[in-house]
Amino acid sequence: METPSVITLEDVDFSYDGAPVLEKVNLSIQSGDFLSMVGPNGGGKTTLLKLMAGLLKPTSGKVKLLGTAPEKSQNRIGYMPQHTMYDPQFPVSVMDVVLMGRLKRNSGIYSSADKQTVIDSLEEVDMEALHKQSFSTLSGGQRQRVLLARALVSKPEVLLLDEPTANVDMGLENRLIDTLKKLNARMTILMVTHDLGFVSCIVKHVICVNRYVKVHPTSALNGTLIREIYGQDISMVRHDAISGCEDGQDG
Amino acid sequence: MTLFQDVRTDRMADFIAALRNPDIAFLRYALLAGVLGSVSFGIIGTYVVTRRISYIAGAIAHSALGGIGAGLYLQMKVGIGWFTPLIGALVAAVASGLVIGLVSLYARQREDTAIGAIWAIGMAVGLLFLTKTPGYVDPMSYLFGNILMISKTELFQIALLDAVIIAIGSLFYNKFLAVCFDEEFARLRGIRVGFFYLLLICLTALTVVLMVTVVGIVLVIALLTLPAAVSGLFSKYLWKMMIFSSLICMLFVAVGTGLSYIYDFPTGSNIILVAGAVYLISVLVHRALRPSKA
Q1: Strand order from edge to edge, sheet including A158-162
Q2: Residue B1: exposure state from Cβ atoms within 10 A (0-12, 13-18, ≥19)
Q3: Chain A residues touching chain B at CB-CB below 8 Å
Q4: Degrees (nearest 5) of the Cα angle B122, B250, B232?
Q5: Pairing state of beta strands A60-65 and A5-16?
Q6: Which of A18, A194, B9, B257 has fewest C-beta within 10 Å?
Q7: What is the DSSP letter of B82?
Q8: What sign has the CA pseudo-torsion B91, B95, B101, B104?
Q9: B96: DSSP letter
Q10: Average pLDDT, whole number, for chain B?
Q11: Sign of the alpha-carbon dihedral angle for B122, B123, B129, B133
Q12: CB-CB under 8 Å, B188 with A75
């Protein structure tokens, strides 16, 4: 029996001011899957992620999140945007940022239980020691982990991550891989990434996004496919051995 | 002690004495209005600076002249006594704030144009009403403030407005913080982002009107943003930034009013010049103290 699908897109088109960004997207994501979206800049990866989260509305076609309209189920997902979108001078503590994940429509105050959940989430990404720190003083990698904690703090069923590995050094990246692997046991994960090595290592499926969308199992990732995704040859640094990748793959 | 210092101490004492003098109650009212308003300015100014909507606040302030003119015209010519310039300013500021807010929510690319249009149209309407109002009305009083206009009734209205702004601004602190920091994420958590954005703009409009008589509509924007900008240099948390902004704003108003009494300068511009000077110095000191990056 098939597992229920958590996200489905039917004939979705999206254009920005008349310029098509995505066309005829048909997609079904099963519960428990771990997917990565790859593709060139401007290919529509972030747009696709935001369509799934209900932050953008398709020009035509249908998006379903957890069996219903995204606006109705978006409180059951965790979302992590790119960390570069933040005002670097905004006066806010790590605790306050993660608490935003506990916001509710009709309540303006946080309980002590909310604060405890925040500490738990920060522990999960190794950032609990810095919870009093100002968000603006953190490094790019630390900010990303705080934003991951904010996505996790609402106990989501689906995790949508936009470039969680950008600006993260190798050691941290490996830690992040372990964290995400653990999380995948209890939630479906979908992330945008540029890092194909990272992709091949832990994800089960790859979504190639370049105006049109194709889904491949990770094992199919090879030179021809990469050429197809990026429209040209790219040099790829293999670091399977370093990142402790077990599933072999043929090139 | 030098003679110069003696004279200054004398004048300072003079100012303090003047505050107690029942014949010049307006000075006391002005200072009181400034100190009361500073709390709202600290809270809303912090939101305005961190959400980067200073220009919207500027347009709202200038468009208030339209309401002030309409208020005077309705009072003097039509004879509607209750429609005071303050009420007119309030209506015009909130209305223009809502127009800009809706444009920025639903047609982001036109926001710029809307800000410029509201800014100028509001002032044009105001001038038109002022010239058609019988008797001589000096627009300078409204543009740059005139503390002689602050009566006991007005002081009472200012206090009331102040209370409303402080109550709403602090009641929804967590939601405003989330909306200012990351609107998109707040929306995912079910927060009515559009509603809170418009509410913030309305609060900004109320705040601007609060100090119109003290510093005037042209100068009010500096008093809204500069205290927050100064306190933002050293505040780690938003609520701390608000408290420091309020205190700094009070200081600007007190020092500016005092200097204007001592040297017989216009109060509004004195307050703003004090604010500007402190901002400039603190930015320079902040830059100098910051560890240089190799």
Answers
A1: A77-80, A158-162, A188-192, A34-38, A205-210, A212-217
A2: exposed
A3: 53-55, 74-75, 77, 79, 81, 85-87, 89-93, 96-97, 99-101, 103-105, 108-110, 134, 150, 154
A4: 80
A5: antiparallel
A6: A18
A7: T
A8: negative
A9: H
A10: 90
A11: positive
A12: yes
Domains of chain A: 5-82+158-243 (3.40.50.300)
Q: What is the pLDDT of residues A37-80, one digit of tens each?
A: 888 888 899 999 999 999 999 999 999 999 999 988 988 999 99
Residue A119's Cβ-count burial label (10 Å; 0-12, 13-18, 19+) is: middle
> Residues B35-92: pLDDT tens digits?
999 999 999 999 999 999 999 999 999 999 999 999 999 988 888 888 888 899 999 9
Burial of B153 (0-12, 13-18, 19+ CB in 10 A): exposed
Looking at this protein, which amino acid is placed at residue B291? Answer: P
A154: which residues sit within 8 A by CB, 6+ positions away? Answer: A75, A78, A101, A102, B189
Using alpha carbons, list the distances in angstroms from residue B140 to A86, A127, B71, B88, B116. Answer: 41, 56, 16, 17, 22
Cα separation, A149 vs A98, whole angstroms: 6
Helical axes B152-171 vs B85-106, angle rounded to 10°: 30
Closest residue of chain A to B233, computed from CA coordinates? A89
CA distance B25 to B28: 5
Q: How many residues does chain B have?
A: 294
Q: Which residues contact B132 (CB under 8 A, 6 or more apart)?
A: B73, B77
Radius of gyration of chain B, Cα coordinates, nearest whole angstrom: 20
Torsion of CA B110, B115, B116, B122, to 10 degrees: 130
Q: Nearest residue on chain B to A135, judged by CA atoms?
A: B236
Residues A31-70 as b/e (b if ≥16 CB within 10 A, e otherwise) read eebbbbbbbbeebbbbbbbbbbbbbbebeebebbbbeeeb
To the nearest whole Å, the CA of B274 is away from the closest chain A CA by 25
ipTM: 0.84
**Is residue B1 over pLDDT 60?**
no
DSSP symbol at B133: S
Nearest to B142 by CA among B204, B80, B82, B89: B89
Structure-block tokens of residue B286: 């902040």
pTM higher than 0.80 for the full model?
Answer: yes
